[in-house]
Amino acid sequence: MTDTPRTVMCSRYGKELPALEKPPMPGAQGEKIFAQVSRQAWEEWQELQTMLINEKHLKLMDPDARKYLSEQMWRYFNNESVDRAEGFIPQNDS
User: Fold this and answer.
1) Geometric angle at alpha carbon 23, from 20 and 24, rounded to 5°
2) What's the rounded Cα separation, in Å, for the pair 90 and 48?
3) Model pLDDT, residue 87
């Protein structure tokens, strides 16, 4: 008997996709992500978050920076426009 991977109706992509294996952070926000965000969307957000932190020189000890990232994260997961670093060109993996 094989275990079927858990799926979620992804808020970003609007379809059933493979889910995260566990909440990515503690608390209600982590549970909400676990229930509504696919593994694919979470991994893409991680890349975007890293770019925002680096390009905008965010300091994660700053509560305003954490609030900004949280707002951007939910905008991304809800398919709304998010900030991009000016002049940033994503790498082409091919």
Assistant:
1) 90
2) 10
3) 59
CA–CA distance, 80 with 70 (Å, rounded to integer): 13
What CATH number does the domain located at 7-20+27-77 have?
1.10.3880.10
* Entry pTM: 0.83
Tell me how far apart the alpha carbons of residues 92 and 94 are, in angstroms, rounded to a whole number.
6
Separation between Cα atoms, residue 74 and residue 37, nearest integer Å: 10
pLDDT tens digits for 6-23? 999 999 999 999 999 999
- Of the candidates 23, 49, 48, the residue with the CA atom closest to the CA atom of residue 36: 23
